[in-house]
Design goal:
It contains three helices and no strands. With 68 residues, the protein is mostly helical.
Length: 68
């Protein structure tokens, strides 16, 4: 399987930020800070399986609407 492209990762980040701004029952600042921190910490990741895992984790969060 191919790793997600840079464009796909940026699109996921954008969607997660939008999702975070719409939250009502969760602390928005905590959620947005966590998303930003996760992306910042993993931006230099080179191992394919870790990149794919984190990408799928973000997609699942958006699809199911749950905080992981």
């Amino acid at each position: 399987m191919l790793p997600p492209s840079r464009q796909q990762v940026l699109r996921l980040y954008k969607h997660l930020i939008r999702y975070g701004n719409q939250l009502q029952l969760t602390d928005k600042s905590y959620f947005l800070g966590r998303v930003r921190r996760e992306f910042r910490e993993n931006c230099k990741e080179t191992e394919l399986h870790k990149i794919e895992f984190n990408f799928k984790r973000g997609e699942t969060l958006l699809r199911k609407g749950r905080i992981l």
